[in-house]
Amino acid sequence: MSRTDVPPQTSAGSAPTAPVAAPPAVTPAKWQSRRRRPGMLAAAVACIAACAVGNYWYWTQNGQRQPVIELARDVAAGSVIKDSDLREASVALDPSMKVVGIQQRDEVVGMRATGTLPAGALLHPEQVTKKSLVKAGEQLVGIALKPGQLPDSSIKPGDSVQVVLTGEDQAAATGKTAADPSTVEARVVRVGAARESTGERVVDVAVEQTQGPKLAARAAAGEVALAVDGAGG
């Protein structure tokens, strides 16, 4: 007679007991250390070395200071440059920047400023000229102009302008109306700085000798205005 497994008996009226599953086994975490690739490490070292060499070359090339001319004081446009207007400065310059070296100081003295030169600025070759701004047969006349008597746009030595003679008596003397005033062709020689209180500035212009006395008289009366010719005019 074979033996048959008989499930365990339970007491009457009680439910059979379900088998309890064993908790899953916890596998301990394994920390894996990263492997450092020798090739990447060598590349990083080479990159750092290249940057260091590049920085050294840059500072070697651009860190060399050069003696140049610096303005010691403000110089008005058209003024003759004096030795006391200049001083030496030692600066590191970009190779593309054009400035006048201190070795050219004697050449600069006696030249004229083509524009207003502020104190502390380095001198550029195009800011000075040897050209005589008053030619033979011309007269130099200074005109004091208030805001509204000249354009807001900057004017500089060498610009061609028209000096407009205003005033009713001038129109009557020439037989022209106020809408068609008399003008004098002129060329700017110097532009003075504007006065802080009134904004007035003096502009020196070169005119023909025959026009000089008339223009000076009108300028003294304040009956002038300045019109600037356009490019190519």
Protein architecture, described:
By secondary structure, the chain is α+β, with helices and mostly antiparallel strands. Among the domains are: 65 residues, Type Iii Antifreeze Protein Isoform Hplc 12 (Alpha-Beta Complex), CATH 3.90.1210; 91 residues, Elongation Factor Tu (Ef-tu), domain 3, CATH 2.40.30. Helices cover 19% and strands 24% of the residues. It has four helices and nine strands; from the N terminus they run αββαββββαββαβ. The strands form three sheets. The protein has a five-stranded antiparallel beta sheet. A two-stranded antiparallel sheet has the order 1-2. The model has no long low-confidence stretch (mean pLDDT 77).
Care to give the gist of this entry?
With 233 residues, the chain is an alpha+beta fold.
- Identify low-pLDDT runs: none
Whole-angstrom Rg: 44 Å
* Proportion of residues in extended strands: 15-25%
Q: Indicate the multimeric state.
A: single chain
- Beginning-to-end CA distance, first to last residue: 135 Å
Q: Globular, elongated, flat, extended or rod-shaped: what is the shape? A: elongated
CATH fold-level name of one domain: Elongation Factor Tu (Ef-tu), domain 3
The CATH class of one domain: Mainly Beta
Spell the H/E element sequence. Answer: HEEHEEEEHEEHE
Average predicted confidence as pLDDT: 77
Strand order of the largest sheet: 5-8-7-6-9
Query: At CATH's second level, what is the architecture of one domain?
Result: Beta Barrel
Secondary structure: number of strands: 9
What's the total helix number?
A: 4
**Helicity level, as a percent range?**
10-25%
- Biggest sheet record: 5 strands, antiparallel
Structural class estimated from helices and strands: alpha+beta
